[in-house]
Target: L-glutamate gamma-semialdehyde dehydrogenase
Amino acid sequence: MDARTSVPQPVNEPVLGYAPGSPERAELEARLAELAGDAPVPIDAVIGGEHRPGTGEDTFDVTMPSDHAHVLGTVQQAGGADARAAIDAALAAAPSWAALPFDEKAAIFLRAADLIAGPYRATMNAATMLGQGKTVQQAEIDSACELVDFLRFNVAYAQQIMSEQPANSPGVWNRMEYRPLEGFVYAITPFNFTAIAGNLPTSAALMGNPVLWKPALTQSFAAHFFAEVLEKAGLPAGVINMLPGHGKEISDVALADPHLAGIHFTGSTPVFQGLWKQVGTNIAGYRGYPRLVGETGGKDFVLAHPSADPEALVTALVRGAFEYSGQKCSAASRAYIPTSIWAQIRDELVRQTEALAVGDVRDLANFTSAVIDKRSFDKLAKVIDACHADETMEVIAGGTYDDSTGWYVRPTVVVGTDPLSDIFCTEYFGPILGVHVYDDGDFDDVIGLVDTASPYALTGSIFATDRAVVQRALDGLRFTAGNFYINDKPTGAVVGQQPFGGARASGTNDKAGSMWNLIRWASPRAIKETLVPPTSTGYPHMQ
Ligand SMILES: NC(=O)c1ccc[n+]([C@@H]2O[C@H](COP(=O)([O-])OP(=O)(O)OC[C@H]3O[C@@H](n4cnc5c(N)ncnc54)[C@H](O)[C@@H]3O)[C@@H](O)[C@H]2O)c1
Ligand SMILES: N[C@@H](CCC=O)C(=O)O
Model:
């Protein structure tokens, strides 16, 4: 794969405001009404360019989280036989895709970006809002801007990788060829970000690999439209094969195949660990060593120091914990606040949390909406019940839930005296913020507590105006977060600005939307050419 011409220098896609009366709001509202009013769309698998229902036994209705009786689309799930057909299609497409010059591949993904930034923006946002329960602001930063940014920045990063070439010596020309991996990449994507669902298959494909893409069923409404965008952009048949379906059945076939060259995963820690184990068990059967890239769970913290700005802290806690109902891997779910600051912010945190408007995503005045599905709702309801029953905890805001029309869980703040209780260690993936109040003098001990309380290391924030304190937190929490924020909420990383990912139980930290991620999908070949080869075997010392 080579890149001889220059590619457009990317800039971040501007976030539109959707203020009342704006043209983008009118277009979005019209599309929301159409998509919600249409009969449920059949969400097919796409295998070798052919759209067809999966051959698995089960069907899955994609419903609106905020109105769970409302069916948006129906998936006839893909299963093992579809995975087999998709692998065959991917391997058949591999040689011509690898041979296509980089510029031609890049043009396809740049066109996809422009389609989403332009004519498909309202569709991608409306589908993400309705299917995944995002408000317009949360959809806009995800299914429009971040997805566009991934597509555009990755092209520039790929070219940067390819321009990375070794040194030469007199009479010798050295080259590095960035080949694709041998085989196919299996991309498995989560429900919560349409951008991640788009990035995982396309980043591997950009580097020349054919892909099996298994979106989360609950994200498959927006995934269906993204597949349409890829086709319109000119992606050849078989390069990305979409399999909405049963993860385990598809994995059992994909992970048993000798051509598995990599897994590009984002989702929960236990699922990634299960995939890693399965690959380990099958390791002798593969042609090479599959690359395993996984971005997984988090228990993301906000640590406040007595020198913190109280007003900024409250805003960061409310936005960081409750935007998209805490269903971001980066969401603030544990906060450590000194007594002096707690006295100043407690009532305001409660007031702002109780005032949050939670409801149907079609009402653009809402701050957040329902959680993704019944499974999540049931889990969160149990957690809230347990908090009410636990005498080490006090629920000071929210603490209620209601599934009569949608999977609604009120943003909830729980103060806990035991810093090692589950609320400070376990990822719940919902709108529940645990607060631990500590004595002002214990700040340095609390740094240690933040570091060790949970197995994750994804995102976290320090709030302090004392620079020496900021430095102590940077040092003491060096390995506690792959994305570290100073006086900001721990969510909302932007492609090209804060490359995203964490270590420990949070993943392999290959930084989505960066050249560090793309390099995992290349297998470099070093080529040495001697321009005038020697013709005698002797060396000077032999004379
Ligand atoms: N670190 C990050 O960048 C990041 C980003 C987004 C989400 N997440 C994490 O994702 C989780 C929430 O997303 P989710 O609920 O979709 O996660 P999940 O692990 O339940 O599902 C992720 C994907 O894996 C699939 N899956 C499940 N079992 C499988 C199997 N055996 N084989 C193949 N695929 C299988 C699912 O169908 C889905 O497509 C949270 O833990 C969150 O922290 C992390
Ligand atoms: N990159 C996103 C989180 C992705 C995980 O859900 C953020 O920074 O908020």
Observations:
- The two ends are 45 Å apart (CA to CA).
- The longest helix spans residues 136-163.
- The mean pLDDT is 98.
- Residues 192-193, 328-330, 491-493, 500 surround 5-oxo-L-norvaline (ligand 2) (CB under 6 Å).
